[in-house]
C-alpha cells in the first residue's frame, strides 16, 4: 500500500503539530527528510530537509510494522505548529511520492491489518467526537473492544453449532449421538436469547452518541419560550405578551445527565391567524412527532387546550406554568414558574431522569449504530428459523446466515459494503 500522510492534530496554529505517515516505503521517505532512521519508537530531534532546503527542526518517531497504529511501517513528525511549516512539510512529502490520506484511512488500514474490528474502529471515531463524559465512556468501552469481544464470543459459539450441524449432514445418523439435533436447537435458542437481550436495549447507545431532542409544546402564551430561556440560562427566544410570538423552531443545546440534548421551542398551537403562523404550527407538530421527549406546557391563567392535551403520552412531561399566579393545579402536571423560578429545579431533574432513562450510559457495552441493530436483528431472525427447518441442510443454512449477519457487525465476513459507511465518519488524519 502506498505511503499516506495527514496532520493528526487540529487545524490552525499550535505549539506542536503532528504529521503522521503510514505504508510501505515510509522508512525511505523518512530517511530522505530526516537522515538515517532513528531507533524504533525512540523520539529523535532532527532537522528536516528537502531538496537542499531546511524545513523545520522536529521530533521524529519511526514506528516499523507491525507495532504501529495501522500495523504498517509508520512515522510521526512532531513539527512546530505553524501553517507555513505544515504546508512546507506536506509539500515535501507529496514530492517524495506520499499522498494525503482519505478520511479514516489510517484506521481503515488498522482494520485491514487486523489491529481492530469494525466496532472498535467505530469506537475510536466516537471517542474523537465525544462531547460529554457519558459519551466518552461509552466510546472508550467500544474502542477497547467491548462489543467486539461479545460478538466474537457469539461468533465462536455459532461456528461450533454450524460445525455440529454440518457433521449431521456429512455422517450417517447412527455414527452420531441421537440427540445432536435437539442439542443444536437448544444451544441456538440460548444464543438467540442472549442476542435478543442486547437488542432489547433498543437504540439507547445510538441516542447517547447522537443526542436527544426535547420539543417544548403548548398553546400560545403558555410560556414555552420563557421556560426555554429559564432552562438555557439565556435569552435564546423572544418572549412577549402577544400570542403567536414564536414562529421558527428555536433550538438550544444543553447536556442533561451526560446526554447531549437539543431543546426545541416551538410556535404555540392554535388555529393560525396567518400563513406564517400556520407554517410555524406545522413545524411545531412535525417536531413533536420526531422528538424523543415532549415537554407539554399548560398555563395557570388559561384552561388546558385540546391541541396540547392530544400530545400527552408516555414520552411526554407535563408542566403547569405561571404557578406564581393563583391556580387550582392540574392533574399530572408539575407546577412551575418561568417568572419566579418555582419548580424549575424539579423540572430540570425530571428532564435529566428522562434523558438518562432514554439514553444514559448503560452498564455494559451496547449497540451504538443502526447497522449494529440491523445485523444483530438479522442473526436473531435466522436463529429463530431453526426449529421450523426440518432438513439438516436448511438448519445449517440458517446458522450460516446468522453467522454472516454477525460477521457484518465485526467486519470479519462480507465487509465490503459496510466499510465505506464506517470509515466515512472519520476525520482526515485518524
Ligand atoms: N406570571 C407569569 N407570566 C409568565 C410566566 N412565564 C411566561 N409568562 C408571560 O407569559 C407571556 C407569554 O410568554 P412566552 O414565553 O412568550 O410564551 P410562549 O408560549 O412562548 O408564546 P408563543 O411563542 O406566542 O406561543 C409573556 O408575557 C411572559 O412574560 C410565568 O411563569 N408567570
Ligand atoms: K408569546
Ligand atoms: Mg414562544
UniProtKB/TrEMBL annotation:
It is found in: Cytoplasm. InterPro entries: G_TrmE, GTP-bd, GTP-bd_TrmE_N, GTPase_MnmE, MnmE_dom2, MnmE_helical, P-loop_NTPase, Small_GTP-bd. Its main location: cytoplasm. Mg(2+) binds at residues 225, 246. Its cofactor is K(+). It is an enzyme of class 3 (hydrolase). The keyword Transferase does not apply. The keyword Mitochondrion does not apply. Binds 1 potassium ion per subunit. GTP binds at residues 221-226, 240-246, 265-268, 321-324, 337-339. It comes from the Bacteria. Pfam families: MMR_HSR1 (PF01926), MnmE_helical (PF12631), TrmE_N (PF10396). One of its GO terms (molecular function) is hydrolase activity. (6S)-5-formyl-5,6,7,8-tetrahydrofolate binds at residues 20, 76, 115, 430. Keywords: Cytoplasm, GTP-binding, Hydrolase, Magnesium, Metal-binding, Nucleotide-binding, Potassium, tRNA processing. Residues 211-356 form the TrmE-type G domain. Its EC number is 3.6.-.-. Homodimer. Heterotetramer of two MnmE and two MnmG subunits. NCBIfam families: mnmE_trmE_thdF, PRK05291.1-3, small_GTP. HAMAP family: GTPase_MnmE. Belongs to the TRAFAC class TrmE-Era-EngA-EngB-Septin-like GTPase superfamily. TrmE GTPase family. This is tRNA modification GTPase MnmE. It comes from Sediminicoccus rosea.
